């Protein structure tokens, strides 16, 4: 490993690339010059030689002087920030704001702030400083400048965000945490769907007093070839997966001709039989059946009202929907990996792509129509949850990134880095690091485009829910960029403009009336949680990770109030399995441990004993009670004794499931994201079974919330 030179360090810092960091064991790590250069290259900066690095640094220092206005200005309501206007030295500038609602503000005063001019490309360029007023309305505006009396107007994006959301007004409640695909019913087609979610939500609200249901990301996956099982590696985060549609709930189902209806019923019977298999979810077989049924329904002539509603949906989603549907239609012909398509189809705006769309209008429209059906069923699901009494209803989950060969990676190439992945450095539970195989946002490109892709994404995932969980929200501050897929430890952190990313998140949440939960586990810089609290974003507290300064279980009264508190998480086994040490045995079997298994088991046993002692000290568990169900109940009572605004209960814990849903660091070595809901003896548990599940009712009764 070669340490970066001083010049390379300066260039890296200018682009937000870390050249050193502290790892999970408190050790100082210097990032190699090779890794730093590779990361800079992914940002479009050539630092392959000392000479090129020096040239890139000089270019970066002059870049701001070459543009009249900043690419994007983000401010909070009430702030009065200064911003720079660059112009020929000695010239004057007229500056104003075109408001989102069509109004205009011209009270943008110039400040008496002297900045020495710079020579740029043979021209002396000056810098004038202006101040924005603190009473600008929230929203997305245009910051405009005219130099002198010329006709040319420079424009950039101005985003005014709320100071904070107000989670303290949230009523304390509990809710389910579940993987929707695993929660099947006797009427679903071998996989949990949106009707199952609505039924579960309505029953839980009315009978059990639940306030929310937190589900896995429902993002779109591949529609051709093998469907990626991980909901955290989607083809698109903006659009949803049609595998979650309940076929019989589509309006046009009632208009099917007898022969068509019989065919759909036959497909349904075949798919429903898959729910008898408790070993694994078979997405590909399910999707094959559902897709055939959906194509039958797509050919039904809709009413004039339905045609109008579909048109309104397409108008709202505009080019983003067209791009997604085009990707899906091309994938049906050439496979889901766009990097292997004919070269002329790899660019979304190419003439060949336009020609394909024009030549295959029905294929493209089919995928637009699928997204409309999802939009309708998602809206109906949230409406049923709220009508039954849930305070929040459905809480959706936003994955960190997307599949490198998926729809978003194809359509958003200008704002995503190439040939590099997002991941995580080693930590206590994943000691070899993680490569999530996802292309990261390029922070400079996001700013250049006014964060349009981020705005569209956040607005879409908030549309039909009462809450939004942000997986790895720390990624809005910095992300671990992996330069070698074979070695996730080979990487470094890249900084993001968190004021912009979080600000837009808060703005869209306020407009949608959504509560935001940030998954802030892992290696966290101390100030980050304070910042998120300041913006009104709830954190995440998982019992197994909550420790005091001495490493002992954190007393419940010392937990955060503004958080979602749970006993476990989807990256660990259900609590019954965790208590048995299943996670250690599984990681050992898969070769994921970096220390001897005996040592790992000893550490795990000591950790478990510490929590059992904490339960006994609080009189939540008797000294002689070693029954797993009683311990699970006691752990949940411990969490219920915290001041946390939201308490989450894993549905797997409620029914006694032991199998882990996901083992980080693996793909097909373990059936990740394919485990259907089952009971303690391995028997299938369906939605219809839940009301009469005594174990479930005892656990919820123990919460007393």
TrEMBL record:
Key words, A-Z: Carbohydrate metabolism, Glycosyltransferase, Transferase
Top-level taxonomic group: Bacteria
Catalyzed reactions per annotation: Transfers a segment of a (1->4)-alpha-D-glucan to a new position in an acceptor, which may be glucose or a (1->4)-alpha-D-glucan
GO biological process: carbohydrate metabolic process
MalQ N-terminal beta-sandwich domain mapped to chain residues: 69-162
Single GO MF annotation: 4-alpha-glucanotransferase activity
Keyword RNA-binding: no
Alphabetical list of InterPro entries matching this protein: GH (IPR017853), Glyco_hydro_77 (IPR003385), MalQ_N (IPR048458)
Similarity annotation: Belongs to the disproportionating enzyme family.
NCBIfam families named among the record's database cross-references: malQ
Name recorded for this polypeptide: 4-alpha-glucanotransferase
Native species: Kribbella kalugense
The organism's taxonomic lineage, starting at the top: Bacteria, Bacillati, Actinomycetota, Actinomycetes, Propionibacteriales
